[in-house]
UniProtKB/TrEMBL annotation:
Family per record: Belongs to the SecA family.
Keyword vocabulary terms for this entry: ATP-binding, Cell membrane, Cytoplasm, Membrane, Metal-binding, Nucleotide-binding, Protein transport, Translocase, Translocation, Transport, Zinc
Domain Helicase C-terminal: from-to ranges: 520-729
Cofactor(s) the protein needs: Zn(2+)
Reaction catalysed by this enzyme: ATP + H2O + cellular proteinSide 1 = ADP + phosphate + cellular proteinSide 2
NCBIfam families per the UniProt record, alphabetical: PRK12904.1 (NF009538), secA (TIGR00963)
Subcellular location: Cell membrane; Cytoplasm; Membrane
Membrane disposition: Peripheral membrane protein
UniProt name for this protein: Protein translocase subunit SecA
GO molecular function ontology, one term from the record: ATP binding
Gene it is expressed from: secA
HAMAP family named in the record: SecA
EC numbers on record: 7.4.2.8
Amino acid sequence: MFSLLTKIFASRNKRIVASLMPIVEEINKRWEDYKKLEDNQLPKMTEEFKQRLKEGETLDDLLIDAYALVKESTRRLLGKKWLVTEIEKEWDMVPYDVQLIGAIVLHQGKIAEMATGEGKTLVATMPLYLNALTGKGCHLVTVNDYLARRDREWMGPVYESLGITVGVIQMGMTPEERKIEYSKDITYGTNNEFGFDYLRDNMAVIPEHRVQRGHYYAIVDEVDSVLIDEARTPLIISGPVDVSVQHYEDLKPAVERVYKMQNFELNKLVVEAERKLKAGELKEAGEMLLMVKRGAPKNRLLMKLMHEPGVQQLIEETEASYLKEKKMSEIDERLYFSIDEKANIVDISEKGRNAIAPKDPDFFTLPDLSQEIARIDRMEGLLPREKLVEKEAVYRRYAEKSEMIHCVHQLLRAYSLFEKDVEYIVQNGKVVIVDEFTGRLMPGRRYSDGLHQAIEAKENVKVEKETQTLATITLQNYFRMYEKLAGMTGTAATEANEFWEIYKLDVVVIPTNKPIRRIDYDDLIFRTKKEKYQAVVNEIKRVHKTGRPILVGTVSVEVSEILSKLLKRENIPHQVLNAKYHQKEAEIIAHAGEFGRVTIATNMAGRGTDIKLEKGVVKCETCLLKKEEALSRLKTEEERRAFEESLKKSNADPEKCIKDMECGLYIIGTERHEARRIDLQLKGRSGRQGDPGSSRFFVSLEDDIMRLFATERISSAMDRMGIKEGEPLKHKLVTRALENAQKRVERFNFDIRKRLLEYDDVMNKQREVIYSLRNEILDGKDLKERVIEYIEDVFYSIFDEFATSRLIEEWDIQGLRKELVENFLIDINIGKGRKEEIEDTLLNLIKEKYEEKERIVTSERMREYERIILLQSIDANWRHHLYELDALKEGISLRGYAQKDPLVEYKREAFAMFEELMFRIEKDAVRILFRFRPEAITLPEEVFGVEKKEEFSIKSVAGEKEEKRDVVVPQDKVLTIGDPVLDKKFQEAISKMKAEKKIKSVRDIGRNEPCPCGSGKKFKKCHGRDL
């Protein structure tokens, strides 16, 4: 079935590629015409293309001309040199036909899968140039700052020779610098920089601070890394919470004690189980070992014992029996806590709860809120306000207890599931996460949900303050905002389903320019990591003697260092790359193809850099492998004759090469990754541009993917075959079992990413509404109409709450008066009359009061105050809403126990919370607009250069009737500072302000406003100092 699907996919792919060949031929014909142009005519062609777009032609109509022009630009650069990341490089590229196919696919908004060394960086120039003609701005997204800068500097002259501007976003740039780079036709940058700039733009308080100008077209380089590997980590801008209550340091001693007690007891249990195994008491031994597996899956004594024949199978059979009979809880209750390694969960038993809080039996018991609230409501003799205080105390106790229980769980996860120097390292007194895909350190990134603080407590470093989310978006939703999205990578076909389902991106596999001559050998399986590492070292030692370059791929920094130590003992010179310094590593890995080189690198170190083979590494001038395929690709008879002549000079034996490759780059993988793509990327470093090469993976039963997903069948096979210590297993069954294990993990991770997206889609729709509202306000549109709507909404809501009947006698008059004072600062006696008349009268009074306030402040300033207050209300309430959504998401999974779909429940409650949020924004904004004093409203300093405040007195206060007072305006005093120029400017400005009816007197100018003379000082420090 799988092979049938493969054939169908392959034939479909071939049809797509074949359908594009006529376009490629047209591009090459037009290219011949463009060779006649003068250099100064190339930018003029760009202007001509733009004009054709304005006249109604489409980008598809321009594709052939535009691509041919870019190809001609690259030809004219041949032999020229310029600096790329401080290194002088010579241009030597003109697009091949297969690169033109890739470029067409990218313009169509698809993913082009192109093998390593096929020139993806050059391919992107053509669709970027074509789409940049619209003037809307195009983005090229890379995985790190170094690649963004390198590609911009390397490809820059191609664009610039055509009259197109190109920029790059780098970490540490100021908003002003970023705005300049985004204003260019094409902008290079990383996914994080683009995403965080979007979030920051939607936190800006003045329009000028926004740096991006829309999301039209993006090409994502290494698209699988960005849209799949990184997709599980949302981008979050966080800030400190108002009140931070943390118990990690207080609870750490108790949790650490229980963790050590469990490990001590489980070690004793393994020893006892081993004794029972020898005595033939298999049932009891199986139960004991299952208990150890549930309580400490990585227990070293257990892992060592599992290498014994039949032990692994015994544990699996015991586990299956307990699961079938639904008795696993009996095992778990004998532990302090149990661990589900696949789901990354720790569950505390009754025994564990008693051990953590022996003196407080109710420590893990949460109060029943509904019962407590009902009890308070039934209490007689308490005033409504006193009942409210009691309820607040109950909520506070519930939150505190819930937080403490959460801290215990996170501390146990930190001790049991997160290993130092694997998932994280401690550097300069801080816990730094290690990226599971790249092996790179990620300073600044923190585990969510208090886990990072738990690890900090565990490692005895400073526990950082709790933070709350200010703005967040997943990369999935960020990139789905682009009108057109495309991507490039060497490995996308294995994830084609996810690309289509999440992003609606089709995958097209682009044929290589030359046949791939890399031989991928079967995996070798060992029982233990120790045996595996020794076998890797022996293989390196054997091949190193022949002078072949070797690249060893590891999954973690720890494994790199272990292998490095072993190689030093054997006196084998080598270099270690742990993906910490992108530029330095790119330079080192570029030399990994030199004669006799041994390079150890985490799987992703130096990604994006080709490994070119040194002269002498390939023994034959023309490789005999896949010679028929190579011949079929040659277009002319002359090329075929030359190729056949070169073949005759080769004296190598193809059969021998296939059995044991003797030249080219040798890739050694030290562990299978959970995603097949990562393994394929490692293999793909060898065999670029038709070079020969080979790859082999060394795997042990102790590797995480084997231990969790594929051990049982392989372990029993090794038992049956009588594999001895240090001896590898090599069989088709092994390869198949490994691939199936990887597929299971990929499906598991895809489900997690899909679930994350489903939850984020709820927030995404809400985010779009809030950000759209925010941008409308920020863009300076007249907000008065919106404010009046808010006033009406808030008033009607209050009125309907307290005036529930048509009979005034049944209204809560006191409650209504209190709310009107609280929100609108009006206090009036409500007389008799029809409900509609009273409603209209009150609303008109409120509107009149607002109009009066506007007359005092002036319309222009009132619009500015409205803008600031509305933004503040949106931001404060949105932050609170995100915090509430985080809390909702955290506990929503428990609804599953009540046979309810957690996602449906989350959507329902999130919608209700959002409706409440929108009303809260309106109510808070209205309340502040009626109560504010201008001196308390600080306008952004960046706009006005100085603080802008205004002073005036509110005439009515809560509980008092408003009274009118006649304001006596004293005659203006002539104000001077002794500077004839500034004094003259001041008098002219005052006359103009009076003529425009902005002020009646100089006393109307706020003391903290900029002085009208233009000196830049505050009025009270300049012409107003004598007032």
